[in-house]
Write a structure and sequence with these properties.
CATH architecture of the largest domain: 3-Layer(aba) Sandwich
Low-confidence stretches: none
Helix content: 25-40%
Number of domains: 2
Mean pLDDT: 94
Largest sheet: 7 strands, antiparallel
Shape: globular
Strand content: 25-35%
Number of helices: 16
Length: 451
Amino acid sequence: MLREAIEIYHELLNDQIAADTDGEMRSMLHKLGLYFGNRPICTVLRPHFYFTDQWAYLKQETEILLGAFSRAHEACLYSPELRQQLSLEAYEEQLFSLDIGGAIPWTTSRLDSFFRADDGILQFVEYNAETPAGMGYGDVLNDLFHGLEPMKRFETNYHVQSMPLLAELLKALLQGYRDWGGTAANPQIAIMDWQDVPTLNEHEISRFSFERAGTSSFLVDPRAVEYRNGALWAGSRKIDVIYKRVLISELIHRMGVDNPIVQAYRDHAVFLTNSFSCKLMAKKASFAFISDERNAHLFTPEQQQAIALHIPWTRLVSDRKTEYEGQQVDLLTFVTDHRDRLVLKPNDEYGGKGVVLGWECEAENWSSALQHALTEPFVVQERVESITREFPSWVDGQLDISARHVDADPYVFYGRTVHGCLTRLSSVSLLNVTAGGGSLVPAFLIERKDF
C-alpha cells in the first residue's frame, strides 16, 4: 500500500516540476536560514508517509515501551546498585536526586527507531531523553510541503494529515511548570543553549511559535544568566521556565556543578526541563538496562514482550557473563567474534560521535575499538537493519529518484504520549543531519480517498 502511494507521488514529477519545486523549497529555506553550512535541512522533494493504521501501531508500541523506561527510571532513582548499570558520572550522581519527589523529569523526549511500516517491523536504537531536537524544523517543513505543487496534486487522491509539534511542546512545558508548582499566569520561558550552536535557527522558530501563542519567550546562553534575590535572571528578565536545549554534560563541564542554573533549580526558584535525572534514561546504557535478563522482573509481561520485539540486544561493555538468545556467553569473547552484527556506542555522546559499525570495519580496528570501550563507558548493541525508501531530488539539472536510509523517531510528550515524528534521510548507514550529511523531511499521515 505504501509503495503504491509513493509511486503515485513520483509519477506526478517531471524535470520541470522537480526543478520548480526544488527552487521554491530552497528559496524558502534560505529565507528562513534553515541551512547547515551550505546545505539546506531538506534536500528531497517528497515527505515521508505513513498510513494511519501504521502510525497507530508505532504510537501504541512506543507508548508501551515508555512505561518500561518509566519503571526503569523510577527503580534507578532509589537504587544505587541498579544505577551502577548506567555508568553515571560523579556529577550525575550528585544532581539526579534533586528530582526525587518532583515533577516528571522530561516534558519532551524522542525514541529513535527503524520502522518497516508495511511489515510492522519496529526496532528502536536509542532514547533521546534529554534534548530532543527537530520539532521546529518539522513544523516549518510541514507547512512548506503542504504548499508545494506535487503535494497539492497528490492530495487529489489522498487525505493528508500533518502532525504539528511546537503547540504540543508548549503545552507540555506549561503543564510541567504547573505540576512543578509554578504560579505565574504568563511564565517567561528561556530557551537555553550556547549562542554558537548550529541549531540556533530552530530555537528561534520555537521562540516565535511560543510568542505567537501568547507565551513570553527568549533565547539565552547559559553563561549570560545569574541567580540573585531568589530568582534566575537574564539581564532584567526573570526566568520562570528553562526550556533546556543545552546538554547537561556540557553545562557542567563548562560552568561547574554549582553554576547559577543548578543553584536556582536546587532552591526551587526555576522550572528546568528536561531536568537532571533525565540523564538516567538518556544514557545509551538505558537500552542495556531494559534488555538485560537481570532486570526483566521490573517490567510487566506486556512491557517484556515489547522489549523483546523492539529493543535490540544491548550491553554495557565489561568483562562479564550474560545471555544472548537464551544462551550464556562471555561478553568480550562474543563481541570479538561477532563484529558483523554489532555496533559500539559511547554511553553519553550524540550526533553519531564515536560510533563504530562492526560490519564496516576490519577485525584489527574492531579489536582496537573494543579495547578503547573498556577504558570508558560504551555499549555494544546488536545491529538493526536500516530501512530504505526511494526519494526524489533535483541533482545536476535532472530529476533523480534514488534510495536513502530513513528512520522513524517519534516524539514523546510528558513521558507517555506520542505525537509527531522526526524523519531523517541519509545515503549512509549512520543517520545524522547536523553532523554534515543527510536530510530532514516531514512525516504525513495519509489515507486513500474514496471516489
